[in-house]
Amino acid sequence: MTIPGVFAFGDSIVDQGNNNAISTLVKCNFLPYGKDFEGGVATGRFGNGKTPPDFIAKELGIKELIPAYLDPKLKPQDLSTGVSFASGGSGYDPQTSQLASVTPISTQLNQFKEYITKLKAVVGEEKAKYILSNSIYLVVAGSDDVANTYFTIGTRRVQYDVSSYADFLVSSASSFIQDIYKLGARRIAVFGVPPVGCLPAQRTLAGGSIRFCAELYNQAAQIVNAKLSTALDSLTGALPQSSVVYIDIYNPLLDLIMYPQKYGFEVSEKGCCGTGDIEAVILCNKYSGTCADASKYVFWDSYHPTERAYKVLLDQIIQKYINKFV
Protein backbone atom coordinates (compact mmCIF):
# COMPACT_ATOMS: atom_id res chain seq x y z
CA MET A 1 0.00 0.00 0.00
CA THR A 2 1.50 3.31 -0.99
CA ILE A 3 1.15 6.42 1.15
CA PRO A 4 0.29 9.36 -1.12
CA GLY A 5 0.72 12.25 1.31
CA VAL A 6 1.68 13.61 4.73
CA PHE A 7 -0.52 16.01 6.68
CA ALA A 8 0.34 17.72 9.95
CA PHE A 9 -1.65 19.43 12.68
CA GLY A 10 -0.52 20.92 15.97
CA ASP A 11 2.41 23.06 17.07
CA SER A 12 5.85 24.36 16.08
CA ILE A 13 7.43 20.91 15.68
CA VAL A 14 5.38 20.47 12.49
CA ASP A 15 4.65 24.11 11.53
CA GLN A 16 6.23 24.45 8.07
CA GLY A 17 5.73 28.24 7.97
CA ASN A 18 2.02 28.82 8.65
CA ASN A 19 2.76 31.38 11.35
CA ASN A 20 4.46 33.60 8.74
CA ALA A 21 0.95 34.39 7.48
CA ILE A 22 -0.61 35.40 10.81
CA SER A 23 -0.12 38.29 13.21
CA THR A 24 1.89 36.78 16.08
CA LEU A 25 5.30 37.12 17.70
CA VAL A 26 5.65 33.33 17.51
CA LYS A 27 7.38 33.14 14.16
CA CYS A 28 10.85 32.55 12.86
CA ASN A 29 10.95 33.58 9.20
CA PHE A 30 14.29 35.33 9.76
CA LEU A 31 17.89 34.23 10.18
CA PRO A 32 19.53 32.38 11.87
CA TYR A 33 16.46 30.09 11.54
CA GLY A 34 16.87 28.08 8.35
CA LYS A 35 20.65 28.59 8.39
CA ASP A 36 21.22 24.98 7.31
CA PHE A 37 18.13 24.73 5.09
CA GLU A 38 18.70 24.44 1.32
CA GLY A 39 19.90 27.88 0.27
CA GLY A 40 20.01 29.09 3.89
CA VAL A 41 16.39 30.26 3.73
CA ALA A 42 14.29 31.03 6.81
CA THR A 43 11.04 29.38 5.70
CA GLY A 44 9.27 29.77 9.03
CA ARG A 45 10.18 26.23 10.14
CA PHE A 46 11.18 26.35 13.81
CA GLY A 47 14.75 25.13 13.45
CA ASN A 48 17.97 25.37 11.48
CA GLY A 49 16.73 23.10 8.69
CA LYS A 50 14.18 20.40 7.92
CA THR A 51 11.46 19.31 10.33
CA PRO A 52 9.61 15.98 10.97
CA PRO A 53 7.05 16.26 8.12
CA ASP A 54 9.92 16.71 5.64
CA PHE A 55 11.86 13.68 6.91
CA ILE A 56 8.76 11.48 6.97
CA ALA A 57 7.70 12.50 3.44
CA LYS A 58 11.19 11.85 2.11
CA GLU A 59 11.49 8.48 3.86
CA LEU A 60 8.14 7.39 2.38
CA GLY A 61 9.28 8.46 -1.09
CA ILE A 62 6.59 11.13 -1.40
CA LYS A 63 8.59 14.36 -1.77
CA GLU A 64 11.46 16.33 -0.23
CA LEU A 65 9.50 19.03 1.61
CA ILE A 66 5.95 19.31 2.96
CA PRO A 67 4.62 22.86 2.49
CA ALA A 68 2.64 25.05 4.86
CA TYR A 69 -1.04 25.31 3.93
CA LEU A 70 -0.90 29.11 4.31
CA ASP A 71 2.19 29.47 2.11
CA PRO A 72 1.24 32.10 -0.52
CA LYS A 73 3.35 30.16 -3.08
CA LEU A 74 1.40 26.90 -2.57
CA LYS A 75 0.53 25.45 -5.98
CA PRO A 76 -2.54 23.31 -6.83
CA GLN A 77 -0.25 20.35 -7.62
CA ASP A 78 1.16 20.52 -4.06
CA LEU A 79 -2.24 19.69 -2.59
CA SER A 80 -2.29 16.00 -3.48
CA THR A 81 0.87 15.12 -1.47
CA GLY A 82 -0.20 16.79 1.77
CA VAL A 83 0.35 20.02 3.65
CA SER A 84 0.83 21.18 7.23
CA PHE A 85 -1.89 23.14 9.04
CA ALA A 86 0.15 23.36 12.26
CA SER A 87 0.79 26.63 14.06
CA GLY A 88 3.76 27.16 16.38
CA GLY A 89 2.58 27.86 19.94
CA SER A 90 -0.70 25.98 19.54
CA GLY A 91 -2.00 23.12 21.68
CA TYR A 92 -4.96 20.96 22.69
CA ASP A 93 -6.00 23.62 25.23
CA PRO A 94 -7.68 26.56 23.41
CA GLN A 95 -6.09 28.93 25.95
CA THR A 96 -2.61 27.95 24.70
CA SER A 97 -3.15 29.36 21.20
CA GLN A 98 -4.93 32.43 22.63
CA LEU A 99 -1.93 33.27 24.83
CA ALA A 100 0.39 33.10 21.82
CA SER A 101 -2.02 34.68 19.28
CA VAL A 102 -1.67 31.66 17.00
CA THR A 103 -4.02 29.31 15.12
CA PRO A 104 -5.94 26.94 17.43
CA ILE A 105 -6.50 23.33 16.39
CA SER A 106 -10.21 24.11 15.90
CA THR A 107 -9.22 26.57 13.13
CA GLN A 108 -6.66 24.10 11.75
CA LEU A 109 -9.59 21.69 11.39
CA ASN A 110 -11.58 24.32 9.46
CA GLN A 111 -8.58 24.88 7.19
CA PHE A 112 -8.49 21.12 6.56
CA LYS A 113 -12.15 21.25 5.47
CA GLU A 114 -11.32 24.14 3.13
CA TYR A 115 -8.32 22.17 1.82
CA ILE A 116 -10.54 19.13 1.05
CA THR A 117 -12.80 21.31 -1.12
CA LYS A 118 -9.75 22.60 -3.02
CA LEU A 119 -8.31 19.08 -3.38
CA LYS A 120 -11.57 17.76 -4.87
CA ALA A 121 -11.58 20.62 -7.36
CA VAL A 122 -8.05 19.68 -8.48
CA VAL A 123 -8.12 15.85 -8.54
CA GLY A 124 -11.82 14.94 -8.43
CA GLU A 125 -13.94 13.23 -5.78
CA GLU A 126 -12.60 9.65 -6.12
CA LYS A 127 -8.90 10.52 -6.13
CA ALA A 128 -9.42 12.93 -3.23
CA LYS A 129 -11.04 10.17 -1.18
CA TYR A 130 -8.10 7.87 -1.93
CA ILE A 131 -5.55 10.53 -0.93
CA LEU A 132 -7.38 11.38 2.29
CA SER A 133 -7.83 7.79 3.43
CA ASN A 134 -4.31 6.57 2.60
CA SER A 135 -2.15 9.50 3.68
CA ILE A 136 -0.47 9.75 7.08
CA TYR A 137 -1.65 12.42 9.52
CA LEU A 138 0.75 13.72 12.15
CA VAL A 139 -0.86 15.23 15.23
CA VAL A 140 1.78 16.91 17.37
CA ALA A 141 0.69 19.01 20.33
CA GLY A 142 0.71 19.15 24.12
CA SER A 143 4.17 20.47 24.92
CA ASP A 144 3.07 24.13 24.87
CA ASP A 145 0.01 23.21 26.96
CA VAL A 146 2.14 21.58 29.65
CA ALA A 147 5.21 23.83 29.64
CA ASN A 148 3.65 27.23 28.96
CA THR A 149 -0.05 27.25 29.79
CA TYR A 150 0.07 24.96 32.81
CA PHE A 151 3.45 25.67 34.41
CA THR A 152 5.01 28.94 33.19
CA ILE A 153 1.85 31.04 32.95
CA GLY A 154 -0.02 28.94 35.45
CA THR A 155 -3.60 30.11 34.87
CA ARG A 156 -4.84 26.53 34.44
CA ARG A 157 -3.32 25.41 37.76
CA VAL A 158 -6.08 27.28 39.57
CA GLN A 159 -8.67 25.03 37.88
CA TYR A 160 -6.82 21.73 37.46
CA ASP A 161 -4.31 19.49 39.15
CA VAL A 162 -1.92 17.73 36.74
CA SER A 163 -4.06 14.61 36.38
CA SER A 164 -7.29 16.48 35.59
CA TYR A 165 -5.47 18.85 33.19
CA ALA A 166 -4.12 15.75 31.43
CA ASP A 167 -7.71 14.44 31.15
CA PHE A 168 -8.76 17.79 29.66
CA LEU A 169 -5.96 17.68 27.05
CA VAL A 170 -6.61 14.04 26.15
CA SER A 171 -10.33 14.68 25.75
CA SER A 172 -9.54 17.55 23.35
CA ALA A 173 -7.06 15.35 21.44
CA SER A 174 -9.63 12.52 21.15
CA SER A 175 -12.30 14.88 19.81
CA PHE A 176 -9.86 16.28 17.27
CA ILE A 177 -8.90 12.81 16.03
CA GLN A 178 -12.56 11.85 15.64
CA ASP A 179 -13.14 15.08 13.70
CA ILE A 180 -10.37 14.39 11.17
CA TYR A 181 -11.56 10.76 10.93
CA LYS A 182 -15.02 12.00 9.96
CA LEU A 183 -13.37 14.05 7.20
CA GLY A 184 -11.60 10.98 5.78
CA ALA A 185 -8.37 10.52 7.77
CA ARG A 186 -7.55 6.88 8.60
CA ARG A 187 -3.80 6.64 9.28
CA ILE A 188 -3.21 8.90 12.25
CA ALA A 189 0.09 9.20 14.16
CA VAL A 190 -0.32 11.06 17.44
CA PHE A 191 2.92 12.16 19.06
CA GLY A 192 3.14 12.14 22.84
CA VAL A 193 4.51 15.05 24.85
CA PRO A 194 8.32 15.26 24.94
CA PRO A 195 10.31 15.57 28.21
CA VAL A 196 9.50 19.30 28.36
CA GLY A 197 11.35 19.71 31.67
CA CYS A 198 14.64 19.05 29.84
CA LEU A 199 14.13 21.67 27.11
CA PRO A 200 16.85 24.31 27.61
CA ALA A 201 14.29 27.08 28.29
CA GLN A 202 12.52 25.06 30.98
CA ARG A 203 15.84 24.15 32.63
CA THR A 204 16.58 27.88 32.81
CA LEU A 205 13.13 28.85 34.10
CA ALA A 206 12.52 25.98 36.51
CA GLY A 207 15.72 23.95 36.93
CA GLY A 208 17.43 26.08 39.57
CA SER A 209 20.91 27.58 39.31
CA ILE A 210 22.39 24.29 38.07
CA ARG A 211 19.71 24.08 35.34
CA PHE A 212 18.61 20.52 36.09
CA CYS A 213 15.69 19.08 34.14
CA ALA A 214 12.46 20.33 35.75
CA GLU A 215 11.12 17.05 37.17
CA LEU A 216 7.54 18.24 37.75
CA TYR A 217 7.27 19.19 34.07
CA ASN A 218 8.53 15.77 32.99
CA GLN A 219 6.17 13.97 35.37
CA ALA A 220 3.25 15.97 33.93
CA ALA A 221 4.32 14.99 30.39
CA GLN A 222 4.41 11.31 31.41
CA ILE A 223 0.93 11.54 32.96
CA VAL A 224 -0.47 13.09 29.75
CA ASN A 225 1.27 10.42 27.67
CA ALA A 226 -0.06 7.50 29.71
CA LYS A 227 -3.63 8.79 29.42
CA LEU A 228 -3.21 9.69 25.73
CA SER A 229 -1.85 6.26 24.85
CA THR A 230 -4.82 4.54 26.55
CA ALA A 231 -7.34 6.84 24.87
CA LEU A 232 -5.82 6.23 21.42
CA ASP A 233 -5.98 2.46 21.85
CA SER A 234 -9.70 2.66 22.48
CA LEU A 235 -10.18 5.05 19.53
CA THR A 236 -8.60 2.59 17.09
CA GLY A 237 -11.16 0.02 18.21
CA ALA A 238 -14.02 2.50 17.89
CA LEU A 239 -13.14 3.95 14.47
CA PRO A 240 -13.52 1.31 11.71
CA GLN A 241 -10.58 0.82 9.32
CA SER A 242 -8.42 3.29 11.22
CA SER A 243 -4.88 3.07 12.59
CA VAL A 244 -4.60 5.60 15.39
CA VAL A 245 -1.10 5.13 16.75
CA TYR A 246 0.51 6.67 19.82
CA ILE A 247 4.08 7.71 19.00
CA ASP A 248 6.43 7.77 21.99
CA ILE A 249 8.74 10.75 21.55
CA TYR A 250 9.40 11.14 25.29
CA ASN A 251 11.85 8.26 25.72
CA PRO A 252 13.89 8.61 22.51
CA LEU A 253 14.36 12.37 23.07
CA LEU A 254 15.20 11.89 26.76
CA ASP A 255 17.86 9.35 25.78
CA LEU A 256 19.30 11.82 23.29
CA ILE A 257 19.42 14.53 25.98
CA MET A 258 20.90 12.29 28.69
CA TYR A 259 23.44 10.45 26.50
CA PRO A 260 24.22 12.81 23.59
CA GLN A 261 27.65 11.24 22.88
CA LYS A 262 25.97 7.92 22.10
CA TYR A 263 24.41 9.62 19.04
CA GLY A 264 27.40 11.78 18.09
CA PHE A 265 26.21 14.98 19.79
CA GLU A 266 28.23 17.08 22.23
CA VAL A 267 25.76 19.52 23.80
CA SER A 268 22.24 18.77 24.98
CA GLU A 269 21.56 21.14 27.87
CA LYS A 270 21.53 24.33 25.82
CA GLY A 271 20.57 25.43 22.32
CA CYS A 272 22.88 26.51 19.49
CA CYS A 273 21.35 30.00 19.20
CA GLY A 274 22.73 32.80 21.42
CA THR A 275 23.53 31.74 25.00
CA GLY A 276 21.37 28.68 24.38
CA ASP A 277 19.60 29.13 27.72
CA ILE A 278 16.48 31.08 26.81
CA GLU A 279 16.56 32.19 23.15
CA ALA A 280 13.64 31.11 20.97
CA VAL A 281 11.60 32.80 18.23
CA ILE A 282 12.16 36.60 18.35
CA LEU A 283 14.96 36.26 20.94
CA CYS A 284 16.90 34.09 18.49
CA ASN A 285 17.73 36.54 15.73
CA LYS A 286 20.55 37.84 13.55
CA TYR A 287 22.14 39.57 16.56
CA SER A 288 22.14 36.47 18.79
CA GLY A 289 25.02 34.62 17.21
CA THR A 290 24.98 30.83 16.92
CA CYS A 291 27.26 27.93 17.75
CA ALA A 292 29.82 27.00 15.08
CA ASP A 293 28.28 23.61 14.26
CA ALA A 294 24.59 22.94 14.92
CA SER A 295 25.03 19.22 14.17
CA LYS A 296 26.86 18.83 17.51
CA TYR A 297 23.84 20.21 19.38
CA VAL A 298 20.62 18.37 20.22
CA PHE A 299 18.77 21.71 20.41
CA TRP A 300 18.78 24.54 17.89
CA ASP A 301 17.14 27.12 20.15
CA SER A 302 15.94 26.78 23.73
CA TYR A 303 12.83 24.87 22.64
CA HIS A 304 13.36 23.11 19.29
CA PRO A 305 15.71 20.30 18.23
CA THR A 306 18.27 20.73 15.45
CA GLU A 307 17.74 19.19 12.02
CA ARG A 308 20.22 16.44 12.90
CA ALA A 309 18.43 15.62 16.18
CA TYR A 310 15.14 15.39 14.28
CA LYS A 311 16.78 13.04 11.78
CA VAL A 312 18.10 10.75 14.55
CA LEU A 313 14.69 10.73 16.28
CA LEU A 314 12.68 10.23 13.09
CA ASP A 315 14.88 7.34 11.93
CA GLN A 316 14.05 5.53 15.19
CA ILE A 317 10.35 6.42 15.05
CA ILE A 318 9.86 5.41 11.40
CA GLN A 319 11.60 2.08 12.00
CA LYS A 320 9.49 1.37 15.09
CA TYR A 321 6.04 2.44 13.87
CA ILE A 322 5.87 2.41 10.06
CA ASN A 323 4.55 -1.17 9.84
CA LYS A 324 1.46 -0.07 11.79
CA PHE A 325 0.47 2.08 8.81
CA VAL A 326 1.40 0.02 5.75
Automatic annotation (TrEMBL):
It holds the Pfam family Lipase_GDSL. GO terms for molecular function: hydrolase activity, acting on ester bonds. It comes from the Eukaryota. GO terms for cellular component: extracellular region. Belongs to the 'GDSL' lipolytic enzyme family. This is GDSL esterase/lipase EXL3. It comes from Striga hermonthica. The lineage of its organism: Eukaryota, Viridiplantae, Streptophyta, Embryophyta, Tracheophyta.
